[in-house]
């Protein structure tokens, strides 16, 4: 029961480093600078909060901390905190060419509601003139996403791996962006999020999107809002 509760918490909140909405964008925080992002996911019964900090270590490394699962559940009470999941995150990126890079990253954490869990990923990143494309594979333990298939519909360890992808497209003067991402699987994070982002200043970005469950997943429809501080 504890594992079920914690992966349901994560289904409504961004779970990684810098991301589109849920999928890591594989951007790296500049050396000796701090990245901050606050995400709120609203469903009929309430909302959940996810807070992310990343610190740039230099040489395309970053490390940070996520606080996930701060919950207001209207169905239970006016402000029912269903638990907090604290995770450490880390990422390394390699620039292969001016338009292509690869990244490895992940996180590990603990909660009062579950045993320790882990999430890891490998992404490829293409940067075109006005478009950024990200795609890769991920691994997650059951404590993070639950026991359902990640996308391969296999048995054993292979079924803990799935696919993830994201796209970002400049729409207007590098200030207004279209964003979308996708995570495979029948677990509660199997979903597509469609939305956009607007730079209200060079450092501060407001984002909004709509979360749509994929076929057979345990995700829920939700409205997603983010405010992000990006160091220059």
Automatic annotation (TrEMBL):
Residues 1-18 form the signal peptide. Keywords: Signal. It comes from the Bacteria. The keyword Signal applies. SUPFAM superfamilies: Porins. This is Uncharacterized protein.
């Amino acid at each position: 029961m504890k594992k079920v509760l914690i992966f349901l918490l994560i289904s409504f909140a961004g779970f990684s480093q810098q991301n589109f909405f849920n999928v890591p964008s594989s951007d790296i925080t500049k050396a000796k600078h701090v990245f901050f992002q606050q995400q709120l996911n609203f469903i009929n019964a309430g909302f959940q909060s996810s807070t992310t900090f990343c610190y740039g270590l230099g040489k395309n490394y970053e490390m940070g901390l996520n606080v996930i699962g701060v919950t207001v559940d209207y169905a239970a009470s006016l402000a029912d905190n269903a638990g907090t999941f604290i995770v450490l995150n880390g990422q390394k990126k390699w620039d292969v060419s001016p338009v292509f890079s690869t990244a490895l990253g992940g996180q590990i954490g603990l909660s009062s509601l579950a045993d320790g869990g882990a999430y890891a990923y490998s992404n490829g990143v293409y940067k075109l003139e006005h478009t950024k494309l990200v795609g890769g594979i991920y691994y997650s333990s059951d404590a993070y996403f639950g026991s359902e298939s990640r996308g391969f519909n296999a048995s054993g360890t292979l079924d803990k791996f799935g696919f993830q992808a994201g796209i970002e497209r400049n729409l207007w003067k590098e200030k207004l962006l279209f964003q979308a991402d996708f995570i495979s699987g029948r677990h509660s994070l199997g979903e597509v999020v469609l939305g956009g982002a607007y730079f209200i200043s060079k450092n501060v970005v407001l984002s909004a999107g709509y979360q749509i469950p994929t076929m057979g997943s345990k995700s829920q429809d939700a409205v997603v809002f983010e405010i992000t501080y990006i160091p220059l």
